Amino acid sequence: MLDLFGIDEVTLAAYRLWLCHEVLSVPEVAEMLGEPLVAAGRARDRLVELGLLLPSRERAGHYVAVHPEAGLDHLLQAQHEQLIRRHERLLLARAQISSFVSDYLESRPGGDTAEVRRIDSADQARAELLAIVGRAEREVLALHTRREWSSTLTREVMPVELRALRRGVVMRSVLPRSVRLDELGAGYVRTVAAHGLDARMIDDPRLDATAVDGRIGLVRLGRGFATGQTLLVRTPELTALLLTLFEQVWEAAEPLSGEAMAAPGDGDDAPNDTERLLLRLLSLGMKDEAAARHLGVSVRTVRRMIADLMARLNARSRFQAGSLAAQRGWF
Q1: Do 16 and 144 share a domain, yes or no?
Q2: What is the CATH number of the domain that holds 247?
Q3: CB 248, CB 204: distance < 8 Å
């Protein structure tokens, strides 16, 4: 937990040694820890900076640990004050978002309460889809059964769907069979299914709709988002009809098999879908911290996953791991 103060494992171990011994030098700590002298030096510098270590006045080059309670109390207080300031900023941000929402709703024809609203803009239709899925509380049901199902839209909606699944939202989708032949689409299905998506397949050129929480639906007419119109439906009668249609198509659709969506190069040591997504993110130059936020895990977990992948690939560096993973078709 002390990583909250920027204290890593080596620094923490060094501090424990200084606590247990009346006075120690940096070389002595390095020897006792089995760490390089430079690592022990960095630990000493950090502890001095935090006020947890003081130079000895009696023995030059040696240091004395400050009592933990006295040394850490002011750090806790500083963190507490930062949390208060952060909370205040979050409240201000929420108020600002509320004003943005008001401005957005006022600019829309019919407002946000219209029972049926026609959307002519493809960009606005995509934005509406991301918005209703992002606000989902219980369930998202999606019919995307046209063969021209958009891989571009997949890239946009996947992060929103992953966040919804992490919140506990139930998500079922019916997709076109052609998704198995599209590398990006198949990767999307594997990734989201690994996080809880229940998917089936069927081909039907008429169906392209999404229902959220049984109370709002987005029905796309014509040829999907690229052309045609979209209807945003809020009436209970029409939403219930959309739910009935979904269940009928769901019963007729083909359950998704693991073999059908298996990626090239799968084997006993092949990565799972989360690891594949991590490899793809790293190949795009994403830092560990950003990848952790994208996956919804800690930075430590991301680094542990990377270390495990490197071991399975017998790679000595991340660059070599990326090259070997690409050769195996892991992403």
Answers
A1: no
A2: 3.30.870.10
A3: no
Give the CA angle between residues 31, 34, 39 to the nearest 5°. Answer: 90
Pair 249, 124 in one domain: yes
In this predicted model, what pLDDT tens digit does every residue of 138-172 receive, in sequence order?
Answer: 999 998 876 655 555 666 788 888 888 888 899 99
- 143 beta partners: 174, 209
Q: Structural domain tally of the chain?
A: 3
Task: Please check whether residue 193 is in contact with residue 179, taking contact to mean a CB–CB distance below 8 angstroms.
Answer: no
Q: What is the pTM of this model?
A: 0.50
SS3 category, 220: strand
CA neighbours closer than 13 Å in the CB half-sphere of residue 66: 16
Q: Tell me the β-bridge partners of 170.
A: 139
| DSSP E strands, 187-321 | 198-201, 208-212, 216-220, 230-233, 254-255
Rg of the chain on CA atoms, in Å: 27
Q: What's residue 74's pLDDT? A: 63
pLDDT band at 27 (very low <50, low <70, confident <90, very high): very high
Residue 259 has pLDDT above 80, yes or no: no
Neighbours of 320 (CB within 10 A): 13
Distance of alpha carbon 125 from alpha carbon 231, whole angstroms = 9
Cα angle 262, 264, 267 (rounded to 5 degrees) comes to 75
User: CA triplet 208, 185, 297: central angle to 5 degrees?
Assistant: 110
For residues 47 and 2, give the distance between their C-alpha atoms in angstroms, rounded to a whole number. 12
* Separation between Cα atoms, residue 212 and residue 233, nearest integer Å: 11
